[in-house]
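Example for tutorial group B:
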């Protein structure tokens, strides 16, 4: 199962990704969680130890590696470099495992779109495609916003794209924009996940609104998310309500094609 998580800034994408990761582990799956945010924080949301996270380097910042794999200096544009560099050994070498979740940080470079051709993006795009197509495990991709940076190959390989929305018109508006971009990429398996939901009215707003997408489920507004952040722990370990919500979301997912 390959799942991409997207949505407006601050709606709860990282919180959702971390909860799903732990819920999949509890159901016996191997999980790879990919942080595609330029300022990574999925590791924190997963409650990974800060010392370990400090040692983890985002792939895009590994200049020597990018040079070795593509034959071009990072930061350069134009010139010759390999568009399909070897990446299959990278996930195990450059990820961190804790509590059954393997975490990989991509770093600050845009991944796709025909307009983006630089050595860093060649490595990242190959890596994400490799992970989505070839790895026999649950892959969760925490995207920072939108889907513009998803290439066609990546979009094709995703089993479900979750658009996280708060019960606000603004976040639903962003979801509608993401829906139309996703459709340009021919990505169809789109679902809304309501986040920070407090009432039946909140649920209804999300279910009724544009963007008119199926709602996979809801995460309640829960103080545990903030407390977990302060304590450097995973919200999954602090809140039975969030744990249950994550399990319900997993059960609502469509079967893998
Ligand atoms: N279910 C929830 N209950 C309460 N607070 C939440 C919940 N989900 C997220 N938050 C809070 O909302 C803020 C943003 O959460 P998070 O980092 O998960 O969002 P994001 O969409 O990944 O943000 P960004 O766009 O910056 O990556 C955080 O302060 C977090 O504590
Ligand atoms: Mg985030």
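The residue assignment follows.
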């Amino acid at each position: 199962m390959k799942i991409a998580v997207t949505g407006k800034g601050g709606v709860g994408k990282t919180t959702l990704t971390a909860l799903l990761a732990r819920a999949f582990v509890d159901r016996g799956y191997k999980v790879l969680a990919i942080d595609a945010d330029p300022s990574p924080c999925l590791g924190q949301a997963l409650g990974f130890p800060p010392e370990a996270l400090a040692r983890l380097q985002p792939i895009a910042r590994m200049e020597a590696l990018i040079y070795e794999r593509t034959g071009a200096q990072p930061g350069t544009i134009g010139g010759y470099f390999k568009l399909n560099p070897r990446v299959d050994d990278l996930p195990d070498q450059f990820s961190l495992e804790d509590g059954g979740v393997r975490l990989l940080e991509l770093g600050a470079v845009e991944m796709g779109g025909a307009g983006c051709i630089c050595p860093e993006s060649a490595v990242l795009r190959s890596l994400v495609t490799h992970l989505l197509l070839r790895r026999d495990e649950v892959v969760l991709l925490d995207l920072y916003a939108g889907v513009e940076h998803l290439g066609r190959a990546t979009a094709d390989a995703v089993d479900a794209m979750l658009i996280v929305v708060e019960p606000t018109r603004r976040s639903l508006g962003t979801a509608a924009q993401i829906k139309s971009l996703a459709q340009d990429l021919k990505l169809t398996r789109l679902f809304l996940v309501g986040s920070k939901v407090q009432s039946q009215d909140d649920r209804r707003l999300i279910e009724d609104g544009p963007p008119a997408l199926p709602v996979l489920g809801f995460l309640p507004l829960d103080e545990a998310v903030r407390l977990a952040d302060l304590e450097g722990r995973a919200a999954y370990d602090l809140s039975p309500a969030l744990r249950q919500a994550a399990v319900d979301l997993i059960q609502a997912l469509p079967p893998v094609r």
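The pocket of adenosine-5'-triphosphate (ligand 1) is lined by residues 7, 9-15, 37, 144, 195-196, 219, 221-222, 225-226, 229 (CB under 6 Å). Compare this with the pattern of hydrophobic and polar residues in the output above.
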